[in-house]
Amino acid sequence: MTKFGFQWPETLRCEALTTESCEHYGVGSSGGVCEPITIPMCQGLSYNQTITPNLLGHTSQREAVAKMSFFNAMVQTMCSVDIRLFVCMVYAPQCVAGEVQRPCRSFCERAKRGCEGLMTSFGVSWPNELRCDSFPEEMCVTEDSRPDMLTAEGLLAKLIAGGFSVRGKTLSLKTARILLTLMDEDKTDDLNVVEVFKLEHYLAVIRREYVESYESRNPPSVTQTQMKKALSAREFHLDDETFRALWHEYRSKGGIDYDEYVAVLTKLQILRDRFQAHLLSLPCDCQVASFSFKQFMKSAII
User: Fold this and answer.
1) Read out DSSP for 227-241?
2) Helix, strand, or coil here: 34?
3) What SS3 state is found at 222?
4) How far apart are CA 243 and CA 237, in angstroms?
5) Which class for 206: exposed (0-12), middle (13-18), buried (19 or more C-beta within 10 A)?
6) What is the pLDDT of residues 103-157, one digit of tens each?
7) CA 48 to chain CA centroid, nearest Å
8) Residue 117: exposed, middle, or buried by beta-carbon count in 10 A (0-12, 13-18, 19+)?
9) How far apart, in Å, do the first and last CA atoms of the chain sit?
10) How many CB atoms lie within 10 A of CB 148?
11) In contact, 202 and 155? CB cutoff 8 Å
């Protein structure tokens, strides 16, 4: 910690506490005390305990969150798959038994590579205090130290705990599996912390739209006309036959409820992503005139 220009307060040294207190609160040999993470952007990671001062010398999480506001905007734009975890490991570093866990230099370089282009578009440079050569190469957290993975069951539990419900109605395990499929970029059938964060951002947009536009109905549901508008707004232009098939598959009494609404939009997004990936894999720079996206959707749904 001396490398970063600060020392632990004398009042937090283990000698000033009982052995039992040290063990209970996670006090390290240097006198550091672990504390729960309160910074919103850094909650829900693979660790939930941090320590202050952090790696930049901020003496409280309140001070740290004010300083990292710019990176919060960067994370929201998904500028790098590693940026959220890296930034949090600097501003709210992982604490294990009272000892800080530093990110490795290679982890910093990977996060920087994935974010510099976007930062440049905002007219800013990578912060000097986050120079990658200031981070260690050994005894540190690397990009290979991946967070715990979530299966569909674990993902559903996390979404329920995170309040992603409407009037007490939660998503189903079936819909959780569809959401996992959308965000499972490496096709491992589980999600890492970055993929979960992207999913939460994606789902928050849909839930907000549902609450603002459709929750007032009793029971809350999406009508046929509203569903057509919602699909059109997302540029899912289905012909009448395809829409009817989709409607009859997902509607319940009164319309399409929250769980099915999420499932429909997510399944269509998966189909679009797969179709676009197919176009990118073509050996020529061309569109498949004989098989449009609308035809692809129809063949997949009906």
Assistant:
1) HHHHHHHTT----HH
2) coil
3) strand
4) 9
5) middle
6) 999 999 988 887 887 778 778 888 888 999 999 998 888 765 544 577 888 888 8
7) 15
8) exposed
9) 62
10) 11
11) no
